[in-house]
């Protein structure tokens, strides 16, 4: 069983930046990802990472950066140039589910955190 704890969410103005963190216990070399879900919308894959490979949704490409610190057992999501439409609950995901459907598919991941809220306003 892997526990994932997200942090770093908050309120920020349009154009601002936030860095989300996800502490994993125990830490394994799983594929990991960030997802988000806005009210009334489906959960959306934002960014994924496995080893040296990364993937991003078109909506965040060029603005968000996913990274891992293996020493600190932590996954990060650096979010720059935030937009109103980035407002959502952000979730960390890890671990192969045995059904790999790509970095940005929720079905690919077995473990999930509780989420951290990101609110972007004018």
What does this structure look like?
The protein has no helices and eleven strands. It has strands at 3-7, 10-13, 18-25, 32-37, 44-50, 53-56, 64-69, 74-79, 88-96, 109-112, 116-121. Strands 2, 4, 5, 6, 9, 10 and 11 form a seven-stranded mixed beta sheet that branches. A four-stranded antiparallel beta sheet has the order 1-3-8-7, with no helix packed on it. Strand 7 (64-69) and strand 8 (74-79) form a beta hairpin.
Fraction in beta strands: over 45%
Q: What Rg, in angstroms, do the CA atoms define?
A: 13 Å
Shape assignment: globular
Mean pLDDT: 95
Largest sheet: 7 strands, mixed
Helix content: under 10%
Low-confidence stretches: none
Helix-and-strand structural type: mainly beta
Distance N to C terminus:
40 Å
SS element count, helices: 0
Number of strands: 11
Order of helices and strands: EEEEEEEEEEE
Overview in brief:
The protein has 122 residues and is an all-beta fold.
List its traits.
single chain, mainly beta, 4-stranded antiparallel beta sheet, globular
SSE layout:
Elements lengths: L2 E5 L2 E4 L4 E8 L6 E6 L6 E7 L2 E4 L7 E6 L4 E6 L8 E9 L12 E4 L3 E6 L1
Parallel strand pairs: 2-11
Antiparallel strand pairs: 1-3, 3-8, 4-5, 4-9, 5-6, 7-8, 9-10, 9-11
């Amino acid at each position: 069983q892997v526990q994932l704890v997200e942090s770093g969410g908050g309120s920020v103005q349009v154009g601002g930046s936030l860095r989300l963190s996800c502490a994993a216990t125990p830490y394994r070399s799983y594929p990991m990802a960030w997802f988000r879900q806005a009210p009334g919308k489906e959960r959306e894959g934002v960014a994924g990472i496995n080893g040296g490979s990364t993937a991003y949704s078109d909506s965040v490409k060029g603005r968000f950066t996913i990274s891992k610190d293996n020493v600190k057992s932590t996954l990060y999501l650096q979010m720059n140039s935030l937009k109103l439409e980035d407002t959502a609950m952000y979730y960390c995901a890890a671990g192969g589910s045995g059904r790999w459907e790509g970095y940005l598919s929720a079905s690919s991941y077995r473990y999930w955190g509780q989420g951290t809220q990101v609110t972007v306003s004018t």
